[in-house]
Specification:
Number of helices of chain B: 11
CATH topology of chain B: ABC transporter involved in vitamin B12 uptake, BtuC
Order of helices and strands of chain A: HEHEHEHEEHEHEHEHEHEHHHEEEE
Strand order of the largest sheet of chain B: 1-2
Number of strands of chain A: 14
Distance between the termini of chain B: 55 Å
CATH topology of the largest domain in chain A: Rossmann fold
Radius of gyration of chain A: 22 Å
Number of domains of chain B: 1
Number of helices of chain A: 12
CATH superfamily of the largest domain in chain A: Response regulator
Number of strands of chain B: 2
Structural class of chain A: alpha/beta
Oligomer: heterodimer
Helix content of chain B: over 70%
Strand order of the largest sheet of chain A: 2-1-3-4-5
């Protein structure tokens, strides 16, 4: 009898100790393979790198972090399945993931119902508008990209533009947002062309744009190989107006693929791609240069803004846990919502109950490709 | 107006030439075995990716191209030897499913051997656009059309003048009769896979500087090539070429004159219409069932 109670005490004690040692689980579902692999791959690598780094520095709240990550291949249906597994089986404390808007939106009902803080890495404005209690996001929205581009166009006295976009979710969403905010900036969209996801030639669409009357600039909403082909075809047809791209192509790969044709192309992007080319007094410079150094040293690969989104997401979650002094989901959620003055790769994040992204246009940079590299447009 | 038309025409012919090469690959294997090889698009991918990686390690372009075509041909031969031949007693449907499996496997292997990034191959002779009557064309387009033409001429010679070419033709007409006159049908099948793979690789290399290449580029090009082969008449060489060019032109004209959003719809609806009236394609042999 005495032995038994002693055993029971040991068990209880042992369990208690194990609980204290139990790692904090960070769940992720990312498009590591598939057509959106260029988003998911750097995101996955960034999460691995920084979970490792945080653990080396002693973890969070005295506990180690554990990354539970699944490859959704950019498929919304798979993303939903994996999110379910993260919530029900793996019992993660927070989810940082969702490389594309489609995946993210498929998962939103699940996290809302289960009450798990979820920081999305996807772009579209629908993720945080209307505000969803448990859903946050780190990248600038497509609407902000349109606004930033239109602002730059107004600075160059451009009023009549042509739009060319892909047929993917991101492309369509950004096209819609651009059409919506264009009148606010007194921009008139005089041509509106689209291309398919696997298309290999856009000269037909661009010829139509070239022949449309009074086009002063062309805006291409899209990511992946489409914009690079548009850029090359644009040069081939010698269309004599500026070309703008979206933040979806803000990686060196775009410049590499487009080659000389990318010269002079402008696009909005987070500061991180500039890193050490940022002015010395820039608030984001330390974060951006540190991220670039660590990522490139580890993976021998150029950074992109996409990996930066994952960095921001992970750090916002970790900071929130520290401030909440707990991994209680409701408390962490409240702490994420109360994020103020967080300097990330994307900008300075100030969340409110009405704004689950917390970014504004001030830290969204306008870049121009010059001599095969990004330069900051003043 | 005419300059615009010329621009659409050139764009359509360029991509159409690629579809034609892929379609030819489908037709050759179909002729030899009645199998539709759904791994055809993967040969396109292997050609492009192998050339990109070989030029990246410093090989001169002509050597890289030759090696890439050879690699693709070897993969084609291996596919026949190790996947199709062991199942030669199986039904055609089984063989088709095997090729689908092979295509998924090849994509997976490619994404590991190379990577999942999109790659650009340097254009064969610069990127300075050439003006033709108000339209512009990149030099690579001329390469695409020129080499496609050369390949078609070579194939014509191959099928009408060489023994193995004639054996291939004979097998496609009547497998049993071919066997009876002493043609080794198994070798013919092997050769058809090697040849198709080489053709696919040539297409993949030619188009890589214009549209880039990546581990999954074969999915779309394979599908379009298949559509072109069906449109022209599966199993017909001239049909594959006509089908490819027509498909490319419909796409370009559809995007230019009707709506870019519906250009694939236009292309596929037209194919359906053609097949309703000409079930064996534009130039396919009229098959009749003997009772």
């Amino acid at each position: 009898m005495r032995f038994r109670s002693w055993l029971a005490a040991m068990l209880v004690f042992g369990l208690g100790a194990a609980q204290a040692q139990e790692p904090i689980k960070i769940g992720a579902f990312l498009a590591v393979t598939g057509p959106a692999a260029f988003l998911g791959d750097p995101e996955q690598k960034t999460l691995e790198l920084y979970v490792e780094k945080l653990n080396k520095a002693g973890g969070v709240l005295g506990r180690k972090l554990q990354l539970v990550s699944y490859d959704s291949a950019g498929d919304a249906e798979r993303a939903r399945t994996f999110a379910k597994r993260l919530i029900e089986q793996d019992k993660v404390d927070v989810i940082v993931g969702g490389s594309t808007t489609g995946e993210t939106m498929a998962v939103v009902p699940l996290v809302e119902q289960a009450g798990v803080p979820f920081i999305s890495l996807a772009g579209a404005v629908v993720i945080v508008e209307p505000v969803k209690k448990w859903v946050f996001k780190t990248p600038h929205t497509d609407r902000m990209a349109c606004e930033r581009i239109f602002l730059d166009m107004r600075g160059r006295n451009i009023q009549r533009i042509a739009l060319i976009s892909g047929s993917g979710g991101f492309d369509r969403s950004m096209r819609g947002e651009c059409l919506k905010v264009a009148p606010t900036y007194r921009i008139q969209v005089v041509a509106d062309e689209t291309y398919g996801g696997g298309d290999t030639d856009m000269t037909a669409q661009l010829t139509k744009i070239k022949n449309a009357a009074g086009v002063q600039a062309v805006l291409n909403a899209g990511f992946g190989q489409g914009p690079a082909i548009v850029t090359k075809n644009f040069k081939q047809l010698a269309i004599p107006v500026p070309l703008y791209q979206s933040h979806g192509v803000a990686s060196k790969e775009y410049i590499r693929l487009s080659g000389d044709a990318a010269e002079g192309v402008r696009l909005p992007a987070a500061a991180v791609v500039l890193a050490d080319k940022l002015p010395a007094d820039d608030k984001q410079r330390p974060v951006a240069t540190a991220y670039k150094k660590e990522y490139e040293a580890r993976f021998k690969q150029d950074i992109s803004t996409f990996g930066g989104h994952a960095y921001d997401g992970l750090m916002i979650a970790v900071e929130a846990m520290k401030r909440a002094k707990s991994t209680d989901k409701a408390k962490v959620r409240d702490a994420i919502e109360a994020t103020k003055g967080f300097i990330g790769t994307g900008g300075v994040v100030n969340m409110t109950p009405n704004d689950h992204m917390g970014l504004d246009l001030t830290h969204f940079r306008m870049l121009e490709v010059r001599k095969g590299d990004w330069t900051l447009v003043q | 107006m005419s300059a615009q038309f010329l621009q659409f025409l050139l764009a359509g012919l360029t991509i159409g030439a690629i579809y034609a090469l892929v379609a030819l690959g489908f037709s050759i294997i179909y002729n030899a075995s009645h199998v539709i090889n759904f791994a055809q698009g993967e040969f396109v991918m292997i050609g492009g990716m192998a050339t990109v990686s070989l030029t990246a390690i410093g090989w001169p372009l002509p050597f890289a191209i030759a090696a890439a075509v050879l690699v693709a041909a070897l993969v084609g031969l291996a596919l026949e030897k190790f996947a199709v031949e062991p199942a030669r007693g199986a039904s055609v449907v089984t063989l088709i499913i095997i090729t689908i499996g092979a295509s998924i496997l090849l994509r997976g292997v490619a994404s590991i051997v190379w990577d999942k990034n999109i790659h650009a191959l340097k254009a064969f002779s610069g990127e300075a656009p050439i003006q033709i009557g108000g339209a512009t064309i990149v030099p690579q387009s001329l390469w695409v059309m020129g080499i496609a033409l050369v390949v078609v001429l070579l194939l014509t010679w191959f099928f009408s003048r060489t023994l193995i070419g004639k054996a291939l033709l004979a097998t496609s007409h009547n497998r049993l009769a071919a066997q009876l006159v002493g043609i080794n049908v198994r070798h013919v099948l092997l050769a058809s896979f090697g040849l198709s793979a080489a053709l696919g690789a040539v297409a993949g290399i030619l188009i890589a500087p214009i549209t880039f290449t990546s581990w999954d580029v074969g999915v779309m090009l394979g599908l379009k090539g298949f559509a072109a082969a069906i449109l022209g008449g599966l199993g017909s060489g001239p049909g594959a070429i006509v089908g490819g060019l027509v498909l490319g032109l419909i796409e370009a004209m559809g995007a230019g004159y009707v709506s870019s959003a519906y250009k694939d719809v236009i292309a596929f609806v037209l194919i359906l219409v053609v097949l309703v009236f000409l079930p064996s394609g534009l130039l396919g042999s009229r098959s009749t069932d003997r009772v």
